[in-house]
Specification:
The chain has 383 residues and is α/β, with parallel strands linked by helices. The protein has two domains: 183 residues, 3-Layer(bba) Sandwich (FAD/NAD(P)-binding domain), CATH 3.50.50; 139 residues, D-Amino Acid Oxidase, subunit A, domain 2 (D-Amino Acid Oxidase, Chain A, domain 2, 2-Layer Sandwich), CATH 3.30.9.10. The chain has nine helices and 22 strands. Strands 6, 7, 8, 15, 16, 17, 18, 19 and 20 form a nine-stranded mixed sheet that branches. It has a six-stranded mixed sheet with strand order 10-3-2-14-22-21, sandwiched between helices. The radius of gyration is 21 Å and the shape is elongated. The chain starts with a strand and ends in a 17-residue tail after the last helix.
Length: 383
Protein backbone atom coordinates (compact mmCIF):
# COMPACT_ATOMS: atom_id res chain seq x y z
CA UNK A 1 0.00 0.00 0.00
CA UNK A 2 1.28 3.45 -0.92
CA UNK A 3 1.88 5.97 1.85
CA UNK A 4 1.49 9.72 1.45
CA UNK A 5 2.25 12.31 4.08
CA UNK A 6 0.84 15.83 4.37
CA UNK A 7 0.07 18.39 7.05
CA UNK A 8 -3.73 18.14 7.13
CA UNK A 9 -6.22 15.53 5.92
CA UNK A 10 -9.76 16.84 5.32
CA UNK A 11 -12.45 14.16 5.08
CA UNK A 12 -15.48 15.19 3.02
CA UNK A 13 -15.62 17.44 -0.05
CA UNK A 14 -19.02 18.99 0.49
CA UNK A 15 -19.15 22.74 0.89
CA UNK A 16 -17.88 22.62 4.49
CA UNK A 17 -14.87 20.45 3.69
CA UNK A 18 -14.06 22.11 0.37
CA UNK A 19 -14.16 25.65 1.78
CA UNK A 20 -12.12 24.71 4.85
CA UNK A 21 -9.58 22.80 2.75
CA UNK A 22 -9.17 25.78 0.42
CA UNK A 23 -8.44 28.07 3.37
CA UNK A 24 -6.11 25.59 5.09
CA UNK A 25 -4.14 24.94 1.90
CA UNK A 26 -2.91 28.54 1.99
CA UNK A 27 -0.72 27.59 4.96
CA UNK A 28 -0.22 23.82 4.78
CA UNK A 29 -0.08 20.73 2.58
CA UNK A 30 -3.66 19.50 2.47
CA UNK A 31 -5.26 16.35 1.09
CA UNK A 32 -9.05 16.40 0.63
CA UNK A 33 -10.67 12.94 0.65
CA UNK A 34 -14.14 12.37 -0.82
CA UNK A 35 -15.86 8.97 -0.85
CA UNK A 36 -18.07 9.84 -3.85
CA UNK A 37 -16.94 10.23 -7.49
CA UNK A 38 -17.66 13.97 -7.34
CA UNK A 39 -17.64 16.66 -4.63
CA UNK A 40 -20.87 17.97 -3.11
CA UNK A 41 -22.90 14.89 -4.00
CA UNK A 42 -25.00 14.71 -0.83
CA UNK A 43 -26.27 17.65 1.27
CA UNK A 44 -24.36 20.39 -0.59
CA UNK A 45 -25.75 19.31 -3.94
CA UNK A 46 -29.33 19.20 -2.64
CA UNK A 47 -29.45 22.49 -0.79
CA UNK A 48 -32.41 24.87 -1.04
CA UNK A 49 -29.73 27.43 -2.03
CA UNK A 50 -30.98 30.34 0.00
CA UNK A 51 -29.25 32.85 2.29
CA UNK A 52 -31.41 33.64 5.32
CA UNK A 53 -29.69 35.77 7.93
CA UNK A 54 -32.53 35.26 10.43
CA UNK A 55 -32.37 31.46 10.21
CA UNK A 56 -31.28 29.35 13.18
CA UNK A 57 -30.04 30.17 16.67
CA UNK A 58 -28.28 33.42 17.53
CA UNK A 59 -24.81 31.88 17.01
CA UNK A 60 -25.83 30.55 13.62
CA UNK A 61 -27.31 33.91 12.62
CA UNK A 62 -24.14 35.76 13.62
CA UNK A 63 -21.84 33.42 11.67
CA UNK A 64 -24.19 33.63 8.69
CA UNK A 65 -24.07 37.44 8.78
CA UNK A 66 -20.27 37.30 8.82
CA UNK A 67 -20.46 35.54 5.43
CA UNK A 68 -22.87 37.96 3.75
CA UNK A 69 -20.36 40.48 2.38
CA UNK A 70 -18.36 37.63 0.88
CA UNK A 71 -21.37 36.36 -1.06
CA UNK A 72 -22.36 39.81 -2.26
CA UNK A 73 -18.83 40.76 -3.32
CA UNK A 74 -16.41 37.81 -3.52
CA UNK A 75 -12.67 38.53 -3.44
CA UNK A 76 -11.00 39.18 -6.80
CA UNK A 77 -10.29 36.02 -8.73
CA UNK A 78 -12.52 33.81 -6.60
CA UNK A 79 -15.29 33.40 -9.19
CA UNK A 80 -16.69 35.06 -12.29
CA UNK A 81 -20.23 34.02 -11.34
CA UNK A 82 -22.66 36.06 -9.23
CA UNK A 83 -22.98 34.01 -6.05
CA UNK A 84 -25.84 36.04 -4.56
CA UNK A 85 -29.12 37.21 -6.06
CA UNK A 86 -31.21 39.35 -3.67
CA UNK A 87 -34.53 37.80 -2.73
CA UNK A 88 -36.54 38.80 0.34
CA UNK A 89 -37.87 36.26 2.80
CA UNK A 90 -41.21 36.33 4.59
CA UNK A 91 -41.77 34.29 7.74
CA UNK A 92 -45.54 33.92 7.71
CA UNK A 93 -48.09 32.71 10.23
CA UNK A 94 -51.76 31.90 10.60
CA UNK A 95 -53.81 33.65 13.34
CA UNK A 96 -53.02 30.81 15.76
CA UNK A 97 -49.31 31.38 15.06
CA UNK A 98 -49.38 35.09 15.95
CA UNK A 99 -47.45 34.53 19.22
CA UNK A 100 -44.63 32.83 17.29
CA UNK A 101 -44.45 35.79 14.91
CA UNK A 102 -44.24 38.20 17.85
CA UNK A 103 -41.50 36.12 19.48
CA UNK A 104 -39.41 36.14 16.32
CA UNK A 105 -39.94 39.86 15.83
CA UNK A 106 -38.74 40.47 19.39
CA UNK A 107 -35.67 38.30 18.79
CA UNK A 108 -34.86 39.92 15.41
CA UNK A 109 -36.12 43.54 15.61
CA UNK A 110 -35.02 44.47 12.08
CA UNK A 111 -37.76 42.26 10.63
CA UNK A 112 -40.75 44.26 9.33
CA UNK A 113 -44.27 43.11 10.15
CA UNK A 114 -46.64 42.82 7.19
CA UNK A 115 -50.36 42.26 7.54
CA UNK A 116 -52.19 39.73 5.39
CA UNK A 117 -52.95 42.22 2.61
CA UNK A 118 -49.30 43.25 2.37
CA UNK A 119 -48.14 39.63 2.18
CA UNK A 120 -50.75 38.80 -0.48
CA UNK A 121 -49.65 41.84 -2.49
CA UNK A 122 -46.27 40.14 -2.84
CA UNK A 123 -47.54 36.54 -3.12
CA UNK A 124 -51.11 36.73 -4.45
CA UNK A 125 -51.69 32.97 -4.38
CA UNK A 126 -51.96 32.99 -0.57
CA UNK A 127 -55.54 32.03 0.33
CA UNK A 128 -57.60 34.92 1.76
CA UNK A 129 -58.11 34.52 5.49
CA UNK A 130 -55.20 32.09 5.89
CA UNK A 131 -52.71 34.55 7.37
CA UNK A 132 -52.33 36.67 10.44
CA UNK A 133 -49.33 38.27 8.76
CA UNK A 134 -45.65 37.87 8.08
CA UNK A 135 -42.20 39.17 8.96
CA UNK A 136 -40.24 40.58 6.04
CA UNK A 137 -36.49 40.03 5.91
CA UNK A 138 -35.00 42.15 3.14
CA UNK A 139 -31.47 40.75 3.55
CA UNK A 140 -32.03 37.32 2.00
CA UNK A 141 -31.01 36.01 -1.39
CA UNK A 142 -30.58 33.00 -3.65
CA UNK A 143 -27.13 31.40 -3.62
CA UNK A 144 -25.41 29.65 -6.53
CA UNK A 145 -24.23 26.63 -4.56
CA UNK A 146 -22.50 24.86 -7.43
CA UNK A 147 -20.57 27.99 -8.39
CA UNK A 148 -19.53 28.46 -4.76
CA UNK A 149 -18.36 24.87 -4.43
CA UNK A 150 -16.41 24.97 -7.69
CA UNK A 151 -14.81 28.29 -6.76
CA UNK A 152 -13.57 26.83 -3.47
CA UNK A 153 -12.24 23.73 -5.20
CA UNK A 154 -10.44 25.94 -7.71
CA UNK A 155 -8.92 27.97 -4.86
CA UNK A 156 -7.94 24.72 -3.14
CA UNK A 157 -6.05 23.52 -6.20
CA UNK A 158 -4.49 26.95 -6.70
CA UNK A 159 -3.23 26.82 -3.12
CA UNK A 160 -1.56 23.47 -3.84
CA UNK A 161 -4.16 21.14 -2.33
CA UNK A 162 -4.80 17.63 -3.61
CA UNK A 163 -8.35 16.32 -4.12
CA UNK A 164 -8.82 12.54 -4.02
CA UNK A 165 -12.23 11.27 -5.19
CA UNK A 166 -13.67 7.78 -4.68
CA UNK A 167 -11.58 7.58 -1.49
CA UNK A 168 -13.60 6.46 1.52
CA UNK A 169 -11.77 6.94 4.82
CA UNK A 170 -11.93 3.33 5.94
CA UNK A 171 -9.65 3.40 8.97
CA UNK A 172 -8.26 6.18 11.18
CA UNK A 173 -5.47 5.33 13.58
CA UNK A 174 -3.26 7.45 15.84
CA UNK A 175 0.30 7.36 14.58
CA UNK A 176 3.13 9.13 16.35
CA UNK A 177 2.11 12.75 16.78
CA UNK A 178 -0.68 12.49 14.23
CA UNK A 179 -3.05 10.24 12.31
CA UNK A 180 -2.96 7.59 9.61
CA UNK A 181 -6.03 7.40 7.36
CA UNK A 182 -6.46 4.49 4.98
CA UNK A 183 -8.51 5.41 1.91
CA UNK A 184 -8.53 3.09 -1.08
CA UNK A 185 -5.03 1.89 -1.87
CA UNK A 186 -3.27 4.72 -0.03
CA UNK A 187 -2.36 5.35 3.59
CA UNK A 188 -2.38 9.09 4.28
CA UNK A 189 -0.57 10.45 7.33
CA UNK A 190 -0.80 13.91 8.88
CA UNK A 191 -0.67 15.65 12.27
CA UNK A 192 -4.27 16.88 11.81
CA UNK A 193 -7.47 15.28 10.53
CA UNK A 194 -10.48 17.51 9.81
CA UNK A 195 -13.74 15.57 10.00
CA UNK A 196 -16.05 17.35 7.53
CA UNK A 197 -17.94 14.21 6.56
CA UNK A 198 -21.45 15.63 6.95
CA UNK A 199 -23.97 12.91 7.77
CA UNK A 200 -21.07 10.47 8.11
CA UNK A 201 -19.23 12.60 10.71
CA UNK A 202 -20.12 10.36 13.65
CA UNK A 203 -18.95 7.29 11.70
CA UNK A 204 -15.60 8.97 11.08
CA UNK A 205 -15.36 9.77 14.78
CA UNK A 206 -16.11 6.17 15.68
CA UNK A 207 -13.41 4.94 13.28
CA UNK A 208 -11.02 7.22 15.16
CA UNK A 209 -12.05 5.53 18.42
CA UNK A 210 -14.19 8.40 19.72
CA UNK A 211 -17.55 8.05 21.42
CA UNK A 212 -20.40 9.81 19.66
CA UNK A 213 -21.14 13.51 20.18
CA UNK A 214 -24.83 13.10 19.38
CA UNK A 215 -24.66 14.54 15.86
CA UNK A 216 -27.62 13.15 13.88
CA UNK A 217 -28.54 13.18 10.19
CA UNK A 218 -32.14 14.13 9.44
CA UNK A 219 -33.84 13.68 6.07
CA UNK A 220 -35.25 16.79 4.38
CA UNK A 221 -37.51 16.52 1.32
CA UNK A 222 -38.02 19.02 -1.49
CA UNK A 223 -40.13 19.02 -4.63
CA UNK A 224 -40.99 21.30 -7.51
CA UNK A 225 -44.42 22.06 -8.96
CA UNK A 226 -45.65 24.14 -11.87
CA UNK A 227 -46.32 27.82 -11.32
CA UNK A 228 -49.99 28.85 -11.73
CA UNK A 229 -50.80 29.84 -15.30
CA UNK A 230 -50.41 33.55 -15.93
CA UNK A 231 -48.78 34.27 -12.55
CA UNK A 232 -45.31 35.86 -12.50
CA UNK A 233 -43.43 34.21 -9.65
CA UNK A 234 -39.89 35.43 -10.37
CA UNK A 235 -39.88 38.12 -7.69
CA UNK A 236 -41.72 36.21 -5.00
CA UNK A 237 -39.88 36.11 -1.69
CA UNK A 238 -38.91 32.88 -0.02
CA UNK A 239 -41.97 31.99 2.07
CA UNK A 240 -41.31 30.17 5.35
CA UNK A 241 -43.95 29.05 7.83
CA UNK A 242 -43.05 30.63 11.20
CA UNK A 243 -42.99 27.18 12.84
CA UNK A 244 -40.98 25.86 9.88
CA UNK A 245 -43.71 23.37 9.00
CA UNK A 246 -43.06 24.05 5.29
CA UNK A 247 -41.62 26.62 2.92
CA UNK A 248 -41.75 27.50 -0.76
CA UNK A 249 -39.95 29.79 -3.21
CA UNK A 250 -39.44 30.31 -6.96
CA UNK A 251 -36.95 27.94 -8.53
CA UNK A 252 -35.99 28.21 -12.21
CA UNK A 253 -39.54 28.97 -13.35
CA UNK A 254 -41.15 26.43 -11.03
CA UNK A 255 -42.11 26.55 -7.34
CA UNK A 256 -39.91 24.67 -4.91
CA UNK A 257 -41.81 23.33 -1.89
CA UNK A 258 -40.51 21.51 1.18
CA UNK A 259 -42.47 20.03 4.07
CA UNK A 260 -39.43 20.91 6.21
CA UNK A 261 -39.33 17.33 7.44
CA UNK A 262 -36.60 16.19 9.81
CA UNK A 263 -36.73 12.41 9.87
CA UNK A 264 -33.88 10.68 11.73
CA UNK A 265 -32.04 8.36 9.37
CA UNK A 266 -28.75 6.54 9.06
CA UNK A 267 -26.22 8.26 6.78
CA UNK A 268 -27.34 7.15 3.32
CA UNK A 269 -27.93 8.45 -0.18
CA UNK A 270 -31.27 9.96 0.86
CA UNK A 271 -34.33 9.46 -1.32
CA UNK A 272 -37.75 11.16 -0.99
CA UNK A 273 -40.62 9.27 0.64
CA UNK A 274 -44.04 9.52 -1.00
CA UNK A 275 -45.66 10.51 2.29
CA UNK A 276 -43.31 13.46 2.80
CA UNK A 277 -43.92 14.66 -0.76
CA UNK A 278 -47.68 14.43 -0.17
CA UNK A 279 -47.38 16.37 3.10
CA UNK A 280 -45.48 19.14 1.34
CA UNK A 281 -48.10 19.36 -1.39
CA UNK A 282 -50.95 19.37 1.14
CA UNK A 283 -49.46 22.18 3.25
CA UNK A 284 -48.87 24.29 0.15
CA UNK A 285 -52.44 23.66 -1.04
CA UNK A 286 -53.86 24.59 2.38
CA UNK A 287 -51.99 27.91 2.32
CA UNK A 288 -52.77 28.82 -1.26
CA UNK A 289 -55.92 27.02 -2.34
CA UNK A 290 -54.03 25.88 -5.47
CA UNK A 291 -54.83 22.35 -6.63
CA UNK A 292 -51.45 20.77 -7.34
CA UNK A 293 -51.97 18.34 -10.23
CA UNK A 294 -48.36 17.31 -10.83
CA UNK A 295 -45.07 17.08 -8.97
CA UNK A 296 -42.33 17.82 -11.47
CA UNK A 297 -39.44 16.44 -9.41
CA UNK A 298 -38.73 15.37 -5.84
CA UNK A 299 -35.52 14.71 -3.94
CA UNK A 300 -34.16 14.45 -0.42
CA UNK A 301 -30.97 15.33 1.41
CA UNK A 302 -29.54 14.94 4.89
CA UNK A 303 -29.22 17.86 7.29
CA UNK A 304 -26.94 17.03 10.21
CA UNK A 305 -27.48 18.61 13.62
CA UNK A 306 -25.73 18.55 16.98
CA UNK A 307 -28.10 18.13 19.95
CA UNK A 308 -28.20 21.92 20.53
CA UNK A 309 -28.50 22.68 16.79
CA UNK A 310 -25.31 24.76 16.80
CA UNK A 311 -22.26 24.16 14.60
CA UNK A 312 -19.48 21.86 15.80
CA UNK A 313 -16.02 23.21 14.97
CA UNK A 314 -12.85 22.59 16.89
CA UNK A 315 -10.38 20.01 18.14
CA UNK A 316 -11.74 17.08 20.08
CA UNK A 317 -10.43 17.30 23.67
CA UNK A 318 -10.14 13.50 23.77
CA UNK A 319 -7.81 13.04 20.79
CA UNK A 320 -4.96 15.33 19.76
CA UNK A 321 -5.15 16.51 16.17
CA UNK A 322 -8.73 15.35 15.51
CA UNK A 323 -10.82 18.35 14.38
CA UNK A 324 -14.61 18.33 14.01
CA UNK A 325 -16.28 20.45 11.31
CA UNK A 326 -19.80 19.10 11.49
CA UNK A 327 -23.40 19.72 12.47
CA UNK A 328 -24.02 22.40 9.83
CA UNK A 329 -27.74 21.60 9.79
CA UNK A 330 -29.53 23.60 7.12
CA UNK A 331 -27.03 26.44 7.36
CA UNK A 332 -23.88 24.88 5.92
CA UNK A 333 -23.83 26.67 2.57
CA UNK A 334 -24.74 30.14 3.83
CA UNK A 335 -22.19 29.95 6.68
CA UNK A 336 -19.36 28.22 4.80
CA UNK A 337 -17.09 31.25 4.15
CA UNK A 338 -17.08 32.25 7.81
CA UNK A 339 -16.77 28.68 9.09
CA UNK A 340 -13.83 28.09 6.74
CA UNK A 341 -12.08 31.18 8.10
CA UNK A 342 -12.77 30.02 11.66
CA UNK A 343 -11.38 26.57 10.87
CA UNK A 344 -8.21 28.10 9.45
CA UNK A 345 -7.79 30.13 12.63
CA UNK A 346 -8.35 27.17 14.95
CA UNK A 347 -6.02 24.87 13.00
CA UNK A 348 -3.33 27.22 11.67
CA UNK A 349 -3.66 30.28 13.88
CA UNK A 350 -4.41 32.74 11.05
CA UNK A 351 -6.84 35.33 12.39
CA UNK A 352 -9.84 36.16 10.19
CA UNK A 353 -10.10 39.75 9.00
CA UNK A 354 -12.95 42.17 8.27
CA UNK A 355 -16.46 40.84 8.80
CA UNK A 356 -15.02 37.39 9.39
CA UNK A 357 -13.34 38.55 12.61
CA UNK A 358 -16.76 38.43 14.30
CA UNK A 359 -16.61 34.63 14.39
CA UNK A 360 -13.81 34.67 16.97
CA UNK A 361 -16.27 35.41 19.76
CA UNK A 362 -18.06 32.09 19.12
CA UNK A 363 -15.10 29.71 19.44
CA UNK A 364 -16.31 28.20 22.71
CA UNK A 365 -19.95 28.03 21.61
CA UNK A 366 -19.12 25.88 18.57
CA UNK A 367 -16.39 23.81 20.23
CA UNK A 368 -16.98 20.04 20.38
CA UNK A 369 -15.85 20.21 24.01
CA UNK A 370 -19.39 21.31 24.94
CA UNK A 371 -20.63 17.90 23.80
CA UNK A 372 -17.96 15.88 25.58
CA UNK A 373 -18.57 15.23 29.29
CA UNK A 374 -15.50 15.53 31.55
CA UNK A 375 -13.06 15.24 28.66
CA UNK A 376 -9.38 16.13 29.34
CA UNK A 377 -7.83 18.89 27.25
CA UNK A 378 -5.35 18.02 24.49
CA UNK A 379 -2.99 20.11 22.40
CA UNK A 380 -4.59 21.00 19.11
CA UNK A 381 -3.10 22.95 16.23
CA UNK A 382 -0.37 22.35 13.66
CA UNK A 383 1.66 25.29 14.92
Amino acid sequence: MATESCDIIVIGAGIAGASAAAELAADARVVLLEMEPRPGYHASGRSAAYFAAAYGKAVVQAITRASEAFFRSPPPGFTEVDLFRPRACIWFGRPDQAPALEAMRAAVPRLEFLDEAAVRARVPVIRPGYLHGGLLDREGGDLDVEALLQAYLKLFRRNGGRLCLDRRAETLEPEGAGWAVTAGDTRFTAPVVVNAAGAWAEQIGERAGLAALGIRPLRRTALTIDAPAGVDIDDWPEMVDIDEAFYFKPDAGAILVSPADETPTPPVDAQPEDLDVAIGVDRFEQATGIDVRRVRAAWAGLRTFAPDRVFVAGFDPRAAGFFWLAGQGGYGVQSSPAMAKLTRYLVSGVRPQGDFSDVLQYVEEVSPARLVADAPSQSTSTE
